[in-house]
Amino acid sequence: MSNELVPQDQPPSSPNALASAQRFTPAAGAGFDPYGAPAEEQGVDLSRYLAAVKRYSWLVAVVTIGCVAGAFGVTKIVRPKYLAKATIWIQGEDPSSHVAGPISAGGLLPSGGFVNLLRSFIVLDEAVKRTRMYLSPAPGTDTTVFNGLTIGDRLRPGRYKLTIAPDGKLFQLATESGQSIQTGQLGVDSIGNVIGLQWVPVAAAFHPGQVVSFGVSMPRDAATVLAGAIGVQMDENGMFMTVSYTGADPVRAAAIVNAVVDREVEVAADLKKAKLTELNKILEDQLNKAQANLTAADNALESFRVHTATLPSDQGTPIAPGIQMTTNPAYATFFQKKVERESLRSDRASIMRILNQSSDSGISVDAMMVIPSVNGSTELKAALGELTNKEATLRGLRTKYTDATPMVAAAASEVDSLERRTIPQLALALVSDMDTRARTLDADLGQAATDLQQIPARTIEEQRLSRQQVIAATLYTSLQQSYEQNRLAELSSVPDVRSLDRAMTPRSPISNSASKILVMGFVAGVGLGLAGAILLDRMDPRVRYPTQVTTELGLPILGTLPRVSKGSGANSDEMAHVIESLRSIRLNLSHAHGAAGPLLLTISSPGSGDGKSFLSSNLAIAFADAGFNTLLIDGDLRRGGLHRVLKGSRTPGLTDYLGGTATREAVIQTTPYPQLWFIGGGTRKQTAPELLGTPAMRELVLSLRSNYQVILIDSPPLGAAVDPFLLATLTGNLAVVLRTGATDRQLARAKLEMMDRLPVRILGAVLNDVKAEGVYRYYGYLAGYEAEEERKAGKDPRQIATPAGT
Question: Which of 1, 27, 223, 502 has its CA 20 to 30 A from that of 160?
Answer without folding.
Answer: 223
